[in-house]
Structure formats: structure tokens, C-alpha cells
Amino acid sequence: xxxxxxxxxxxxxxxxxxxxxxxxxxxxxxxxxxxxxxxxxxxxxxxxxxxxxxxxxxxxxxxxxxxxxxxxxxxxxxxxxxxxxxxxxxxxxxxxxxxxxxxxxxxxxxxxxxxxxxxxxxxxxxxxxxxxxxxxxxxxxxxxx
Length: 145
Fold this sequence. Notes:
Blueprint lengths: L1 H13 L10 H16 L3 H4 L10 H13 L5 H10 L1 E4 H15 L7 E5 L6 E7 L2 E8 L5
Helix pairs in contact: 2-5
């Protein structure tokens, strides 16, 4: 009877147990593939959920989205290359002062900003880790890899 009472008391607490996911390269790559698919299929409103937009209005971002694929800022082939070759880490460590400027301008917590980096390239991938997902604030030249 005591065990049953203990179990019954424990059940409501299960909902409070946190299932936080840690940021990592695999998650970022997966979210880039999802974003690329949304952009290719012109699902721009849904793609808004993948961006950190403090300094851009949704309207401006929606106008920019079709250009991301056309200008080769993102592509499946480029994401494949990132998956195989990029280094994942904190933006401040990967990009140094350039990354710090980006985060400062957007007033982001440097401990929650991660990116993918390829040495001697002009590719930039920077994102805020929030609510167990990445919100991208910098995507450059991924489709040019």
C-alpha cells in the first residue's frame, strides 16, 4: 500500500522533470536541412520559426527568404559539406571578434550562441540555442560550398 501511494504521488511530478536537449552539430545540421526544405518549397511563414528576428521585422524577413536559395546562402549540397567538414562550437570561439560583434548587435547571450565553421572559407552559420532548438541569425554562403 505504501508503494502504491508513493507511485501515485510521484506520477504528477514526472511532468516537471526536464528533458533539456544539449545543443550539438547533429541537431544544427538537421535543422538546416529542415530550413532548406521549407525555403525550397516556399513555406516562408513556417520558416520564420527558424530565425532569430529581433532586429528584423517578419515582413522584411519574409521578403528576404526567397533570395536565400537563389543567392546560394543555403543548399542541401552545402549542408552535406558542413555535415562532413564543419567544426561545431560557440560562436565566440569559432568566429572570434566577428562573432562577438554579431551577438552584441543582437543583444544575445554569448553562452547560448553556436555555429558551424570551416577554416579558410567565407561560410558563416550562427544561431541562438533557445527552447531546445536553434534560431539562426547568420547564414552565409552555405550553398556556395
